[in-house]
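Tokens for beta-mannosidase. Go.
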Amino acid sequence: MTSPPASLLLLLLPALAAAADVVSLDGARWTVRNANGSVRVPATVPGGVYTDLRAAGVLSSDFFFGHNDELYRWVSYDNWTYELTFEVDESLLRRRHAQVVLHGADTVAEVWLNGQRLGGVENMFVRYALAATGALRAGANRLAVNFTAAPVEARRRYEAYRLAHGYAVPPECVPDDYHGECHANHLRKMQASFSWDWGPAFPSEGLWKSVALEAFDAAVVRDVIVRFAEPAGEQGASLHVRAFLELGPGAAPLEGTLAATLQLPQGPARASAQVQLSPDARGHAVADLTVTGFDEPPRWWPNGEGEQTLLPLTVSFTSGGESSEVTRRIAYRTIELVQDPVTETPEFREHLNVSENDINYGSTEKGLTFYFRVNGRPIFAKGSNWIPVNVLPELGGDPAHVRYLLESARDTHTNMVRVWGGGVYESDLFYELADEMGILIWQDLMFACSMYPADEAFLALVQEEVEQQVRRLQAHASVALWAGNNENEGALVDNWYGTGANFQQYKSDYVNLYANTIRPLVLELDPTRDYVVSSPSNGLETDKEGYVSTNPGNALYGDVHYYDYVADGWNADTYRRPRFASEYGFQSMPALATLRSAVANASELAVESELMASRNHHPDGYSEMALLAAKRLPLPDDWRSPQRFDAFIYLTQIYQAVATQTQTEHYRRLRSQLLASGEGLCMGALYWQLNDLWQAPTWASIDSAGRWKPLQYLAGEFFAPQMASAYVDTAHRVHVWALNDRPEPVDGVVLQARPGRWDALPEAGWQNVSDVFTLAAAGSQHVLTADVAPWLASLRGCEAAAERCFVLLRLLAVADAVPLGPERAVLPVAPRLAQGLEPADIQVASVSGPGADGALEVALRTDRPAPFVWLEAGAWEGRFSRNAFLLADGAASVRFLPRAGAAAPSAAQLRAALTVTSVAAQAVTRTAAGGEQRGRTNVYGAPN
Ligand SMILES: *[C@@H]1O[C@H](CO)[C@@H](O)[C@H](O)[C@H]1NC(C)=O
Ligand SMILES: *[C@@H]1O[C@H](CO)[C@@H](O)[C@H](O)[C@H]1NC(C)=O
Ligand SMILES: *[C@@H]1O[C@H](CO)[C@@H](O)[C@H](O)[C@H]1NC(C)=O
Ligand SMILES: *[C@@H]1O[C@H](CO)[C@@H](O)[C@H](O)[C@H]1NC(C)=O
Ligand SMILES: *[C@@H]1O[C@H](CO)[C@@H](O)[C@H](O)[C@H]1NC(C)=O
């Protein structure tokens, strides 16, 4: 063979380079056994001991069935050892360095290869690369990972810390209602795995992410962080890439080629450079590269603001004929958290479209703004909070479920989700999908509702965790903000856990952890994003006050979490006026069909059953739900009785949905308002909580089976980018606002109303109730305030007392007669006080389809208007095009779209399963379209 010319050889080199050897040790070829060897079953990696024991039949029923959370607790008190025998080719032993990489181990364990200890692991959020060169053999190798029982280890660490430092790190334990375990704060583990007020304790053990054997002569590229620079003069845009490489402990400096290829719409942009790696003692090195001179790529926008253009990036390191590479999809966009003094920034006023006249300088302290600006455009953050997808971390990355939840959020106008600090840093897939869907991620670091240790060992563990997680996630366009913890500043300042007597100690630990250790790390690794020390916090004001503020709940700064289980949540006047509402919500029941999967006997489907009592971890949760629902809805006096369970579920769901709607619209209306108190200019509404992990009363809008509660449907309306928003205050005045999140104004808009009486089908049509106005860009504007009774009386359609009426509102673009956003139903009085609101006779006239898109069409008929009409498809999974709505006319049509991947019903099957529930002043009625229950039943109350 003739040798090619040297120049050609150089060009060919990267292609010829052999990759670093990565041997996957994943799969169903492991075994797991307990400490005394009485249980030994096949195991799968990635996985966990609960999942393995369930697969082997040792755990005989579903994790979330009955009292299994407690019956299966023994698993978490045993020590479990994972073992694998695997073959190694002799050639692999000739590589300079070999390491066993545990991408995620939950949590405290030792790792052994052929009887030799490779090291210990103690943080489930850290990837461990353990040097294996000396221990590895050609042929059969035996890998063992022996875990320590998490609750036992947590208690041991708690005691040890107390002895060593002379004070305990609280809380002592979770409340009794949680049926949980204590001292999760002493383990770097999903904090919710020891239980939460919405979730069970399953203190897992196992290898929840992949395990691999890596062998190489040069280096592996582990992570890349990126930063675009906008075009400067003739230079074009550029991309700075920093690669993080591993060479193995004690490795010598190494020269090689770092190369990057960025795929742009117009073609690839490339760069490469000779780099000298100077590894630290652990064998870690960084190398930098800049891809320059390309045309500005299309920008990435949040959901509802524009396209989400993603740009594939490949980064490789080649040395001595060996190459390692990673690929990411990155995006071109800027993001800022804007915290400007409210009174001093005309620039901000312009962006928020607040005129000088709207600013009231009445009091002295005005605080700071708190909002996100993406590509220079202020964004009102709309969405929810995300809890772990599954309490068992190995099941939390389920691609179909993660996609389903994010799509549900996207389809209801969500542009931001907060990954809450008591769960896990989510899977790569989660962030990839968020990138694709334009869902910004408020990323808490995983600390929640506790004090935390702050000795050297703990800080070192956290340091490694934060470095790895920030490097892993930094390149994702969706990530918007880093937040140090969930509610720990509030817990400290408000003395939730009895820390008051030793406040200075706990404060100093707090500052050491979140401000002195984490903050500089995050800001150094990711200069493209902000870091707030806690959520909620006062943002920059908290920083200024030494990272612990005297009043963390100050509405003039930062974000606020807000819950009230006593006040009437359908009254907007009860809510606070923060800059950014990052948590707020109400409990409700999951669907009956979902609860059924948790019970053996229908007799348990009652509020007072032992099972249902144990499922509500929120102290007095049922009483609170009842108290709240009864303020507005016809809650039966005997709501605790088994016969009322159905009605209780429905009424708590409706209460939750409307209360959250009321609160969310209140925040949105505050977008352009600045009150004399300095409050207002709210720029975010993230309700608590999107998802659920078991069948229980919780704050979720989607239950654990994926069924949308009424709240999820209403979110699709109250988050609409343009809409009429209305509320009736305590003085019986109706206030209507126009909301517009889009950056353009709309000329020629009118507010229209369509009143109706409860006791007859409406005859009147839409009527203009405002002058024609320009819907301002990116803001909220007041349209009308009126005493509700005379106002209604002045319109066609409600020739009766306001108590007998309802009114639908909408914005209409006059020129093309196009409605802007959804119709907003306004009830002048609570349904339970409405007059003439008798049970409607709602019939399912027909069910047809499915059509080409798989959707079925349901035609409804009614003899009178009905509020909160709620369609359910029995056990069938899917969603309706509209639900929990006011059925105003004699006929309506709703589409049912079966869930992707789930069994789809025929028209006859859907009809047989379909129920339609609605509320009357003193009744809840339900129509079953087919099957044995066919006809109308009174779930509660007398028929008319
Ligand atoms: C072995 O461990 C299991 C589970 O923890 C326990 O139930 C059993 O009693 C133990 N057996 C012996 C012989 O100690
Ligand atoms: C688990 O391991 C710990 C630490 O080695 C030990 O103290 C404990 O007794 C073990 N538990 C069981 C059930 O064997
Ligand atoms: C893990 O195995 C080693 C060696 O057998 C033993 O010394 C250690 O106590 C074990 N740890 C646990 C938690 O079982
Ligand atoms: C503010 O409103 C004006 C007029 O409605 C519009 O032209 C402008 O684009 C808006 N500015 C922003 C930043 O949205
Ligand atoms: C269900 O519970 C009721 C009441 O406790 C009991 O009478 C009945 O036998 C149970 N049914 C089954 C199938 O266990």
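Residues 1-15 have pLDDT under 50 and may be disordered.
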